[in-house]
Amino acid sequence: MSVQTAYDKARAEGRAALVGYLPAGFPTYEGAVETARTMVDAGCDVIEIGLPYSDPMMDGPTIQDAVHQALVGGIRVADVFRTVEAVAATGVPTLVMTYWNPVDHYGVDAFARDLASAGGAGLITPDLTPEEGGAWLEASDARGLDRVFLVALSSTDERIEKITGVCRGFVYAASLMGVTGARSAVDTGAPRLVERTREIIDKGGTSLPVGLGLGVGNGAQAAEVAGFADGVIVGSAFIRRLLDAPDLASGLAGVRELTAELAEGVRAGR
C-alpha cells in the first residue's frame, strides 16, 4: 500500500490518517521494530522511521534522548533499512524521516536503491529544500519513492507552491515554529497553514493530502487536528511512553494505549 492510498482509505472512512514516528534503534533495534508493529496493530495508518543523526538540530529533547540512545546502542543506516523492512512487512506504508547529510554521505542513488529494496515508501526530508534536492528528485523518480517536504507557518504562498509541486505521498505541515515535541495546545496558526496549503494544491489540480505534525500528544489534540488536516502526525508522545516506562513491556503497553486513544481521536474529529 502506498502512502497516498493509506490517506485515501482513511478519507473514505470519514476520518484523518494517523501517522506515527519512532527512531530506528530506540530503545533497541528489536524494541523499535516491536514498538512500530504495536503502533500499527493499535491503529496507525502510516509509520515514519527516524534515521538517528548525531546533530538533530530540529528535534526537541524527547527525540534527542531517543536518538542518543539509538546511536549509543550502535544503530547504523543498514539497521534503519532492516527496521523499515520489518515494519513494511505489516502492510502499512513505511517512510524514513531523516536529515539530508546521512543520505548525501551514503550516496543518494544507493540510499534510494536500498530503501526501495527494503520496501520503504519514501523519505521525509525536513532540512532539504526543492532547490537543493535535484539528486533526490531524480533518484526517487527512478525508484518510485515518495518524497515529503515540509511547509511551515512562515512559508509564503510562493514557497508552498514550489514545495507542494515536488511532493509525492503527502505534504508535511509543521505547525510549530521551533523544535519538535508534544505541546499542551495545537498552534493557533495550524488550521490556516493547512488551508493555505490545500488551496495551492487544489490550484495545481492534484489531491495531495496534508498531514500536520509537531505537537500532538493526546486524543483530544488528535481530534482537533483531524478536524482540518488529512493526517495527524505523532512522534514525541510515543517516545515519551517508552522513555518513562520501567521496561519494554510496560512501554509497549503505554504505546498501545496511546495509539488507541489517538486512533479514536482522528475518528472523533470528523
From TrEMBL:
Catalytic site positions: 48 (proton acceptor), 59 (proton acceptor)
Keywords attached to this entry: Amino-acid biosynthesis, Aromatic amino acid biosynthesis, Lyase, Tryptophan biosynthesis
GO cellular component: cytosol
MF (Gene Ontology): tryptophan synthase activity
InterPro entries per UniProt: Aldolase_TIM, RibuloseP-bd_barrel, Trp_synthase_alpha_AS, Trp_synthase_suA
Pathway it works in: Amino-acid biosynthesis; L-tryptophan biosynthesis; L-tryptophan from chorismate: step 5/5
Catalytic function, reaction form: (1S,2R)-1-C-(indol-3-yl)glycerol 3-phosphate + L-serine = D-glyceraldehyde 3-phosphate + L-tryptophan + H2O
Entry superkingdom: Bacteria
EC number: 4.2.1.20
Keyword Amino-acid biosynthesis: yes
Assembly, per entry: Tetramer of two alpha and two beta chains.
Family: Belongs to the TrpA family.
Function: The alpha subunit is responsible for the aldol cleavage of indoleglycerol phosphate to indole and glyceraldehyde 3-phosphate.
Name listed for the protein in its UniProt record: Tryptophan synthase alpha chain
Organism: Actinomadura livida
